[in-house]
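TL;DR need C-alpha cells for one chain.
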Amino acid sequence: MHKELYEEWLHKANCSYQEELSKIINDDQLIKDHFYQYIPFGTGGMRGKLGAGTNRINVHTIRLVAEGLARQIEDQGDLAKKNGVVIAYDTRHFSKEFAYETAGVLATHGIKSYVFRESRPTPELSFAVRYLTAYAGVVITASHNPKEYNGFKVYGQDGAQLTPKFANEIIEHMKRVDDIFTIHSFTKKELLESKFCIEILEDLDNAYNEALKTLVKKKNENADLNVVYTPLHGAGLEPTKRALAEAGFTNVHIVNEQAIQDGNFPTVSYPNPEEALAFEMGITLGKQVGAHLILATDPDADRLGVAISTKGNYQLLTGNQLGALLLNYILTKGKLEGTLPENGVILKTIVTSELGTAIAKSFNVQTINTLTGFKFIAEKIEEFETTGEYSFLFGYEESYGYLAASFVRDKDAVQIALLTAEMASYYQKQNQTLIEVLNHLYQQFGYFGEKLLTFTYDGLDGQLKMKSIMNRLSISPYEEIGNTPVVAMEDYSKGISYLNGTTKPLHLPKADVIKYILQDGSWICIRPSGTEPKCKIYVGVCKNTINEVQSTIDKIIQDVQSIIN
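>> reply
TL;DR here they are.
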C-alpha cells in the first residue's frame, strides 16, 4: 500500500515535494516511513516531521485536516460558519504558509477565518477564540519539538483543545476524502480579497494584555527585580516583553540573539525550556547583568522554564518545583488578602508531583488529578464554572505547563512569566530567593523528587513495540519495583484500579496509561506519548532527606529497563 501511495504522490503532489520524493525512489524503508500511515490526528491535533508523504506534515496533510474541520463546521450550520475559526501560528518553517492554507480551505466552504498577521503564542490563540466568540481555533505549531517538526492543533469554542467527540467527527470527515489532491484552497491573494478572511493582531494583543494585567496588582513594587528573558526564537517575545513592562518590571534584559524569530532555532539544538542547554545564552547574559531571574518560553510560548540566581550561579527549576512555588505563592497571597474561596481547587495531572497536593491541603484547598494533557485541566475549569462546585485557583503539569487565570484555557507561559516575576519580586523584598522558599517547602512537607525517562520508538516497528509493552503490563502487572512491593496498579486503559486484591473504577477517561503505587508511597507511571513516537516513564518519591530521595529513585530506575524491554 505504501508503494502505491508513493507512486501517487510522485505524480500528483505539489512540485515542491518532487525532489525529496525522487531521492527516496530506491529506498523501500524510507518510502515505508513516509507512507505507512496518514499522520495521526486526535484530541492533541497532529504533529510530525516536515516533508513529503502521508506520514509527514506538508501542504497536503494540512489541507486534509482543514477539510475535515471545514466539513465538521458545515454540519453545525450557518452560525458556526459565520462565527468562524481563529488561526495562529508560531515561528517554525512553513507555519505561516500552513495557517493561510488552512484559511484557504475553510473559505472554499464559506467559513470565516480570523488569521493573526504575525506569529503569536498558543495561549493568545486560546484567548482569541473566546474573545471573538469563534466556533473553533487552529494553531500551527509543534510546541517545543526540534526544527524538523510542525503540527496542527484545534481548539473548541471554550478555547480548550478538542474533546474526543469533536476530534472524532473531524477524523470521520477526513476518512471520507477520496483524493487528497483534489482538496481546493484559496490562494492567499484570493483569500485576502474575499469576505472570508480577516487579519487580526493589535486589537487582540491589547485585549490579551489587559487580561494579563489582572494578574499583577502592585506594579510599582517590581522595578528592583533584575530579569533576563529569552523567547528561544519563538512567538513569545512581544506579548511577554509587553506584559512585564506594563507590570512595572523595568529592569528586563532580552537575549537578543534568541529574539530573532527563526524556525531553524540557530542558537539551540532543541528549543525546549525543559532542557538546560536552552538556558546557556540566558545564563551568560544573566551573569553579565546580575539578573535574579531567567525566564525562557518555548516556540509557541505555552511552556515556561525558569532559572534562579544562587551562590554566584543559576539553578534551573523543574516543572514540579516551579508549580509548587507558584501554588504556594497564590495560596499564601490569597490567605493574606482574605480572597481564598471556601471551595477553592487546584488541578494537576496524575504524573505531577504530590508536593502540590500537600501544599494545597495545608490551606484546606482541594486537589483534583486529571489525565496528562492540559485539555483535561481545561475541561475541569469549564465544568466548575458551569456547576459552581469549585473555584479554580491554579492548574499545572510537570512538563512546564501552568495556568493561573482562566481567560485562557491552555497552559500559558506569558501568564506564568509575569506571575513568576511578581513572585520573585515579592520574596526578594523579604530577602528570600525562590530557592530558599523551595527549601522551606521541603522542610515543611518532605523532600519530593521526580524523574522522567523517555524512550524513543520510531516508525511502525516502534509503534508496535510500544503497544506490546503496554499490553504486557496490563495483562501481567509487576508485584515489586525497586525492591519495594506494589500495593496498587491503576490501569487507565481499562478504567480500573487494583488495590489489595480488590478492583475499583477510576473516575477518569480511559487512556493508554498504567501507574503503580508502591508500599512506601513512591509511584511509577508508564505512558506512550500521544504526539511523539516516545514512551515516557515517570517516577515520584517523597522521603525525609534529599539523599533518601535520590537513592529510592535510583533503585526504581534500575527496574525500568526490564519494564520497557
